[in-house]
Batch of 2 targets.
Target 1
Amino acid sequence: MPPLRRPPTSRSIALPPRSGAVVADTDVLVVGGGPAGIGAALGAASAGAEVILAERYGFLGGNATAALVMPWMSFHTRRPQPPRLGDTSLMPSDHGIGEPVVAGKHIDVIERLIAEGGAMRPSPGTGYTVPFDPEIFKVVALDLLDEAGVCYLLHAFASGVLEPHDPKGVIFESKSGPLVVRARTIVDCTGDGDIAAAAGAPFEIGRAQDGLVQPMTLMFRMVGFDPAGFAGYVEERPDQWRSVHGLWELIEKASAAGELDLPREDLLFFATPHPGEVSVNSTRVTGALGIDAFDLTRAEQVSRWQMRQIAKFLTKHVPGFSDAYVAQSGVNIGVRETRRILGDYQLTGEDVLAARKFDDVIARGTYPVDIHNPTGKGTDLRTVPAGDAYDIPLRCLLPRDVEGLLTAGRCISGTHVAHSSYRVTPTAMATGQAAGVCAALAADGGRPPRQVGIDAVQTELRRQGADLR
Ligand SMILES: Cc1cc2nc3c(=O)[nH]c(=O)nc-3n(C[C@H](O)[C@H](O)[C@H](O)COP(=O)(O)OP(=O)(O)OC[C@H]3O[C@@H](n4cnc5c(N)ncnc54)[C@H](O)[C@@H]3O)c2cc1C
């Protein structure tokens, strides 16, 4: 059976009115338990708030666990090369790795992951990324929330708010029926800006010229991989970090023979903490929007076909993969970009590429502009000036036309180009922590987040170890 297609004409019917059980009143409600949500919940709890975090899945981590997005990208100035597969020896030192620019809760999570054997410390050998194990991340996230006194509700899909423009509470669909959590301040960490959009905040989608978003990717893990066989066969192209020379030729041959038919130019792999395992970031579905059920359905189908094709190609043709197999794919296809909620300031590509500074900085980023082509092959990669980082102002977390709400993570206020940089895991966690802190201070003072002074937010963030420079 084909996937259900969008009907050619839209019809609607009135739904029965209903009521929901009010299950909690809290200072801060964080919706979405991805990197931003975890950062927000920990930041708000450390600032003294009573916090509830609600998540649609039965585990935390967002893209990092549900979509198997690995590794944590580098958060150090001057972008290093990514790790060579299975190679933990020193990389060439002339990349001049600078300083880390994201600290605070993000480092606490990484340290705990390392202590639990679930991550590798960023180093020249990892290309300053953090390879991690998503299963260990799921448990560590729960441990950290428990220790911080954060209450969580899982299997709860947020479907609406109590009131537009000043939501005061969120409605969740659950196996127990509709549930309502009321809160003094809400932080939207859904990645898609579901709560802000439901509350009436304006938003943008896609690039300025045509509204197209970055493609989606179904990530998967292959085990039984032999790094020695692979590394002994290929060599890195000096001009191309995404592919390797011998592999490139095999891809071209298989594409010409019709064995590979992918809308991307190369195959991209990442090492994990486990030597016999590789994370494959190589499927690509364009023309699909991650907040459209019909697009998502088609994207899941197409990406799984691509995964099968790639796995067959690797095991048949690529040394090191002959005994490998797909051990796991994402619970869902990875969604890079959907709504960008418009806030009091919109961060631009120019801000990112000029490493611009703001007085109301609440987080910093240094990851390049990294736009996977929304229409097919190719990636637009532009680095932040060497040794430097850009600031993210608090105003990017304050949605226009709405009070009592902040955004964090990949749905904050920025252009398509800026988003392609700040969307990565470390920066998402940092904006999460900042939103959590501002939400806690707002709840404590009985005022909207906009009226919390930036000095108070920055002072508390610094106390929590955040790097604002
Ligand atoms: C294919 C792909 C590859 C990437 N590669 C890398 C990489 O190598 N390194 C890197 O650092 N970053 C990478 N990224 C970016 C990074 O993974 C994400 O952008 C990051 O996870 C953003 O964090 P977030 O918390 O804002 O959003 P998400 O991770 O999307 O988390 C949102 C959370 O909210 C939940 N949620 C959503 N809607 C609702 C709702 N209505 N009700 C309740 N819960 C809800 C979701 O289940 C999820 O847990 C990649 C992204 C993709 C898609």
Note: Residues 60 and 141 are 7 Å apart (CA to CA).
Target 2
Amino acid sequence: MIPRLLYANDSGRLFEDPHFLMAVFDGSRVRAPREDEIIELPEGSDVFFLPGRRPFAINPVTMGPEVLVHHQAASAFISPAYLRTLLPAYDRDEDAPVLPLYAYAPVGSLDGRFYTTAIRIDPSERQNPVRFDIRRIRKMVRRMKRRLPDNSLVRHLEHCALVYKCRAAQNFFLRREEAPLPTSPSCNARCIGCLSEQKDSGFSASHERILSVPSAQDIAQVALTHFEHVENPVASFGQGCEGEPLLQVDRLVEAVRLIRAQTLRGTININTNASRPGAVEKLCKAGLDSMRMTMNCADKQLFDKYFRGTDYSIENVRKSGKILKDYGGFLSVNLLVFPGLTDREDQVDMLIDFLGDTGVDMVQWRNLNLDPEVYMDALGRENFGGGIGIAEAVRRVKDALPTLKFGYFNPYVGSRS
Ligand code: SF4
């Protein structure tokens, strides 16, 4: 059964339409969702109204799309571990504001329940919002600050956990899963959807960038504290509140050496734009265990249009990945998925080639957090549409590379040391 249209009035209040059905956009066409594409909106997801955007709806008689000009569109922001497979369908007003940095997914409603189009890509509950009790987090922050009173990174993570509600920072204080190790105030890319720096883009960054590089001792202390208390712990450089960690390679090498001098427990990971193969080699020699490289696609032209690297492109990423593999590390790709681009056959083929050639162990299929029309305008609308569907794209990659792991989060892979 196809859910009804969910729309908003001018003050943002949401309504289920008694007549019209939910519509979706696949990158080139507005249509009704197929029943196999629809799931109930996962726990912990949010529903937004989209200012200055008129919803498309499906006429249940003609099954054709119509724009409802007196309503505002609505959208879902699906909780982590789920991959949206389609986009919300709306018609934007000339003077509509640019949307903030979220991954917009379709939303419909039926008998008071919300529905969307997505697939679960990771079984982990690591960032399920219902597992995060803010009173307990505050208590654990106080306890950690008493234990590490002079640690500047702990003070930074306190801000991340309590102000940005960053799940990685909260998990550090709650002593579970993956701890963040942000270090870099600068970056050599200018990603259109950068979470930590936005200039003249019409929308703001969702995090302020860390202002100074923490000492190797402070970095190591946070990682060691986490490794001491957590089962299958991961500690990761490269977070939403910083630039590119590879630009601080000497400090990171010093910190990794300090950690490995004291323990072989835990996985030391780096989330990175993988722009500096030489820096990756230095970190592998120091004891780095795993690396996650961020890409929006394997198409050089479209990669460059998104990352706008100041001194690198996709060849650097491929080389960095091969170096990590040569040292026996675990290699992931953080794929910024966008329905209408990621699932185009040419893009799927290029992705399979890249993953196979580089020896990637895991693809983390993640929703790109960006106003869909900002992305399509930046990369060129001619590059979108005609896709095979995100679920089919995921299947094809698995068929082509059967040993490849899929997920949403950095896994614990032990230590190489
Ligand atoms: S690599 Fe990261 S920090 Fe640098 S511009 Fe891109 S998103 Fe921002």
Note: The chain has a mean pLDDT of 97.
